[in-house]
Amino acid sequence: xxxxxxxxxxNAIPVEMEYSIxxxxxSLPVNHDPxxxxxxxxxxxxxxxxxxxxxxxxxxPPGPPGPFPGLWxxxxxxxxxxxxxxxxxLEVEVCPHGQHLILLLSGKHNAFEQALPLSFxxxxxxxRWRGEALLPWxxxxxxxxxxxSYAIHGSGGSRVYxxxxxxxREDLVPGQGPDFHRLEYFQPFTLQSIMGNEWVQPESDLWxxxxx
Length: 212
Hints:
There is one protein chain. This protein has one helix at residues 192-195, and strands at residues 2-4, 17-21, 23-24, 35-42, 45-53, 66-67, 76-83, 88-94, 99-106, 111-114, 119-125, 128-136, 146-153, 160-163, 187-188. By secondary structure, it is mostly beta strands. The strands form 2 sheets. Strands 3, 6, 7, 8, 9, 10, 13, 14 and 15 form a 9-stranded mixed sheet that branches. A 6-stranded antiparallel sheet has the order 1-2-4-5-12-11, with no helix packed on it. A hairpin with a 4-residue loop joins strand 8 (88-94) and strand 9. The two termini are 32 Å apart.
């Protein structure tokens, strides 16, 4: 679900966009207050804010706040930003204990950069947590036109995978499991929808000349 928080006239000025993750990866409704993600203009990048239930399951990753490979095995919220024409995309993972993971991918599942630095802070308060990250423009592939976001919590057989844009029930096949890299289910999204139609994305040394 999408809410435009501060719209401008014909999107001539920056806006904030808020999404709520209301379904599991296979299109069943979640049984808790949904994870909410807000995107807005930041200084030198896109600000990503997370407001979510705190399950504390699994326990915190065994390391200090900062980049953490394999963060997807813990309690985590993720956003993917895709150029659907060439399958280049940015994957952002953040967790309530302060760890994060950035991956740049060229082709499905094909990461060529990971564990890049990120300005991110997280705070747990009772049974909820809040996080804020600044995603530098240079991390985004040129021509982002689609997006999806996810949330994961729980351990073992009770692990729960949630998606902003889930796989429709009619597309499921027996034995299928969650795969957050099903790019065909991502939905339209542009950075200009937040920054304004006249905004031009800065060039990125990380993506320059990158081929699949």
